[in-house]
Amino acid sequence: MWAARQLITRTRTCVLCNLRRSFASKTEGEDRIAEVLKTRFPLASLVKVVDISGGCGAMYEIHIESDDFKQKRTVQQHQMVNEALQEEIKAMHGLRIFTSVPKP
């Protein structure tokens, strides 16, 4: 019973957080991660970071398009992003990474 009550409370909090987040500007975490990625991948034509945890900073989705990824397999591209964010990842619950090479 206690576990069910906790789950309902957490779900309610998450939904409310998501409602507030949908109208908010970027979070500090999004800005910090974007800055790290822009520094590590100066050739990037796109760096997009979205806090998908509702603004709590527990989970992020990253889209990055860079010439740095040329001739690299997807797993290698993701390893490069993970390496760049090794300190930030320690405080995260999850991370979605989408990488690509700019089209000519």
Structure characterization notes:
This protein is of the alpha+beta class. It has a single domain (26-100), classed as BolA-like (GMP Synthetase, Chain A, domain 3), CATH 3.30.300. The chain has four helices and three strands; from the N terminus they run H-H-E-E-H-H-E. It has helices at residues 2-21, 28-40, 74-84, 86-89; strands at 44-51, 59-66, 94-100. It has a three-stranded mixed sheet, with helices on one face. The protein starts with a helix and ends with a strand. Its main location: mitochondrion. It comes from Eleutherodactylus coqui (Puerto Rican coqui). Acts as a mitochondrial iron-sulfur (Fe-S) cluster assembly factor that facilitates (Fe-S) cluster insertion into a subset of mitochondrial proteins. Probably acts together with NFU1. Belongs to the BolA/IbaG family. One of its GO terms (cellular component) is mitochondrial matrix.
In short:
It comes from Eleutherodactylus coqui (Puerto Rican coqui). The protein has 104 residues and is α+β, with helices and mostly antiparallel strands. It has helices at residues 2-21, 28-40, 74-84, 86-89, and strands at 44-51, 59-66, 94-100.
Key traits:
GMP Synthetase, Chain A, domain 3; alpha+beta; BolA-like protein 3; three-stranded mixed sheet; BolA-like_sf; 104 residues; single chain
